[in-house]
Amino acid sequence: MVNSAPWVVHKFGGSSVADADCFRRVAEILESQAPGPLGVVLSACRGVTDGLLKLVELAERQDEGYRAELGKLRARHATIAETLLRPESARLFLAGFDRDCHDIEGILHTVRLTRAAARNVTDLIAGYGELWSTKLFHRYFEERGGRPGAVKWVDARTVLVVEWGSLGPAVQWTESHERLAALVPKGFEGTLIITGFVASDRRGVQTTLGRNGSDFSGSIFGALLEAREIHIWTDVDGVLSADPRRVPDATVIDSLSYNEAMELAYFGAKVIHPQTMAPAVGSDIPIWIRNTFAPEKPGTLICAKPDSALPVKGITTIEKVALINLEGAGMIGVPGTAHRLFGALREEGISVILISQGSSEHSICCAIPQEQATRAAAVVRDAFARELKEGQIQSVDVDPDLAILAIVGDGMAGTPGIAGKVFGALGVAGVNVRAIAQGASERNISVVIDGRDATKALRAAHAGFYLSPHTLSIGIIGPGTVGRVLLAQLASQAARLREKFKVDLRIRGIMASKRMLLSDTGVNLSRWREDFEQDAVEANLEKFIEHVRVDYLPHTVIIDCTASEAIGRKYAEWLGRGMHIVTPNKKANSSELSYYRSLHEARRSSGAHYLYETTVGAGLPVIQTLRDLRDTGDEIISIEGIFSGTLAYLFNVYDGRTAFSDIVKDAKQRGYTEPDPRDDLSGMDVARKLIILGREMGLELEMADVKVESLVPEGLESGSIEEFLAKLPRHDGTMRDRLEGARSRGKVLRYVGRLTADGKATVGLVELDAKHAFANIALTDNVVRYETRRYCDNPLIVQGPGAGPEVTAGGVFADLLRLAAYLGARL
Question: What is the mean pLDDT of residues 621-631?
Answer without folding.
Answer: 96
